[in-house]
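Continuing the batch. This is chain 6 of the set; chains 1 through 5 are on the previous pages. Same settings as before, nothing changed between runs. Recording input and output for traceability.
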Amino acid sequence: MSRRDARRHAFRVVFQLPFYPEATVEALAQAKVKYYDSLEAGERPSGRDAEYIDRAVWGVFDRQNELDQVIGNFLREWTIDRLNKVDLALMRLSIYEMLCEPDVPLGAAVNEAVELAKEYGSDESPAFINGVLGNVSREIGSKR
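Output for chain 6:
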């Protein structure tokens, strides 16, 4: 499995987070189990891919407020509450990678989010996500 495929799996679980209003560790674990159960045997991540997915999903869960604050700092005339849930999940995952996955280049985190936005988001999602995450990556890059 490629990192791109692992990222797609991580996105699909992260996307489910807002639909579990109790936002507990147990709810996230349940969402992940349900997601994995929905996959065919050959699609289930294992090894390093499963480890990455776990790190990313739990990382987004643990840092959601921090990630939302970063996103909010770069929104113009928008609020987090108004964002499309796909866009929000993709930006959370991408910013998590930029901040916490040193082996993922900043540009790759942005590009992968844009590619997933083309597949899962609205027609406006790729450009919107590229604009926000491009600004985030420049700021993070200037602090490294």
